[in-house]
Amino acid sequence: MAGRYVGRSVLRTEDVALTTGHGRYTDDIGAGGATPALEAAFVRSPHAHARILDIDVTDALDVPGVVAVWTHEDLPGPAALPLPVLIPHPALHAPRTGYALAPHTVHHVGEAVVMVVAENRYLAEDAAARIRVEYEILPVVVGIPAARAAIAAVHQDVPDNIAAHLVQEVGDVDRAMAAAPRVLELELAIERSCSMPLEGKAVHARWDADDESLRMYSSTQTSTSVRAAVAAKLELPLSKVEVIAPDVGGGFGVKIMHPWPEEILVPLAARRLGRAVKWTEDRREHFISSAHERGQEHRVRVGFDHTGRVLALNVRFWHDNGAFTPYGIICPIVTSTQLLGPYKPGAYRVEFTSLYTNTVIVTPYRGAGRPQGVFVMERTLDRIAAELGLDRTAVRRANFIQPDEFPYDQGLTFQDGRPLIYDSGNYPAQLDQLCELVGWDDFPRLRAEAVAQGRMIGIGLGCYVEGTGPGPYEGAHVTVQTDGTVEVSVGLTSQGQGHRTVFAQIAADELGVPIDRVRVTGGDTRRFGHAVGTFASRAAVMSGSAVVLAARAAKAKALTVAADALECALEDLDVVDGLVVMAGNPAVSMPLGSVAVLSNPLRYAFDEAAKAATQFARPADPDVPPVPEGTQPGLEGKEYYSPPRSTFASGMHAAVVEIDRDTSEITILRYCVVHDCGTLINPMIVAGQVHGGVAQGIGGALYETLAYDEHGQLQNASLMDFLMPYVSEIPVLELGHTTTPSPLNPLGIKGAGEAGVIPVPAVLASAVEDAVGFPITAMPLNPSLLFDLRTRHARAGATAAHGVARSDEGVTR
């Protein structure tokens, strides 16, 4: 599919503004205006679980500059009702969501209780500090063990704390397990973490009283969905609500959640007060009132043969969904289905329970349930290899889906409600390339040299498949202007992925125009009103495909109009460098801008170019109307792409690590990736996505965890204590690609946005385990934890050795 631009590392057009301080973020909207926006601040619960007995706002009203104070009692109509369950599911039998402002009970630290609006944020914060809220403390549930034991109820009407329970099974697992020559059991866990974008959530809203309409800016991954949610909650016609996502300083999944309470409350305040109102999240608010992810505990039973072939796999896991389930159970569904990776177990049963705890809600975070699933599968295969004394790559080869088996139906239902059918891939070739890249076969020699030097090194690998581009649809609008420029509008928002560049590459190739003549806009409901959102590595698959279809429609119309004007056959024309030209006779040509003029029959000439489209510019055919039936004026195409199911990208990572013998510090010496996302639209941007994902994965594997105490207080809610890797901790990434185009879309593309992050915990656990010589069963793994594990392992070994020695002396162990 490579063309003049698709397949090339075109420099990103977004970067000049973003890297020179000329980005325009939500907090910048209206800055420096004659009438600055009012600003909001929130009183948030200091308790993880408590009943609200009384709220006294009297002292806050005395603060000069305070304009309004709202509690739940002040919210009108639907705004006072619970927030929606965005993705209902039959297995989510006890869904619970919060409110814009808590009415009677708070369920986690950070839940909003009161909103204050003042002339600026400083005054609003001062007033909020004067509000007195009287609470009755209730029992707190923190962590999966406490939720499973139901030591208390997070919601009084859900006494077992179970929000959802789901089982999927393929084949007869019990029979296959009983017949398996070997059986292993494992317990594995990944702790809770969260995304940490440079820009937190932010909302700016203003009300037009004359038009009775709302314009809203939000740092969101889904402007069209925020628009629909706000219209419903404020009882406004959809046509009277505009939502714009300006530059967004990172999302990583946390900004796909909607509507946030603030996205309801800020526009409500703007409407009531007749003034622009804004709110920008501070860092502590992000920790305690946005969203987390990752926390799961798994129990695995696997049956296998002497080659390492998995004959039966039974996985039971528990998912901590926090205090509410506004985003449904997408994360554990993804874990349960993507756990299988590039493998084909003989029989598979997966059962999960999603549990309420008095902690921040859980919604997708880059990877969205996949890192947990990959960790489980890859740790299981490593354990099988250790039990059988086989190379870890041999066990994977024994279980791979083969290239001639695609499309491959895993027999499960994926997160989009459609069958889990892999569209394409070549996993054996990927592993071959990875082993060559990292020097897998040469590593024993390197280890021997390291041991001789007193160093402790290890190598690990991990394989994964990533479902990308889920539906239901995305659209694009391509318009050729009369000056020959091309405008492309999509509904998707961008948080730094390079959408403007990638979609311009696609449109330029399809239309035959120079890329610098293409302008791309997204995330603005004024320009494109129907879209789903930016998540699940779907932008290139969904909107990219829609841009292809819309550009082709615009081109088809251009050739039709040009054929009429040039009095030649349609099939003889093409568009080259912005000119419609005749094959074999390039002297017969017409600029694409002129074709755009002719596509819009005019009565009045506004400039010289418009004259060509007026009624006396050329002889008229009395039998043909100026605008033929079935067409419309203008040179444009608007199309939607809706796939039959998700595409499935894949990848394999390997790492070499060194463990400091004294401190247990983990240093990554090498990190290698082989990735398959189908057709590469822009290899440089794909590489950037993988690089960023690996960095985020390293953070999640070795640094980032959220530490709650038994009272539901987050102990490390600041960047002083929530550790993220610096560039000095991220190794140089060695990247290779395989390409198996998807048959499901016109470009043959698969998603790449989450690829880097997914297998990193599994890869590093494998490498560390290889270095230290004992099982690694939980992540993240920081030096302190590893030091303790090494100490316990050494003590256990010494005790065992002492017992053997005493036994040899005739003393009972």
TrEMBL record:
Domain Aldehyde oxidase/xanthine dehydrogenase a/b hammerhead: 20-139
UniProt superkingdom: Bacteria
Keyword match Oxidoreductase: yes
Gene Ontology molecular function terms on file: iron ion binding; oxidoreductase activity
InterPro entries: Ald_Oxase/Xan_DH_a/b, Ald_Oxase/Xan_DH_a/b_sf, Ald_Oxase/xanthine_DH-like, AldOxase/xan_DH_MoCoBD1, AldOxase/xan_DH_MoCoBD2, AldOxase/xan_DH_Mopterin-bd_sf
Record keywords: Molybdenum, Oxidoreductase
Protein's recorded name: Xanthine dehydrogenase family protein
Upper classification of the organism: Bacteria, Bacillati, Actinomycetota, Actinomycetes, Nakamurellales
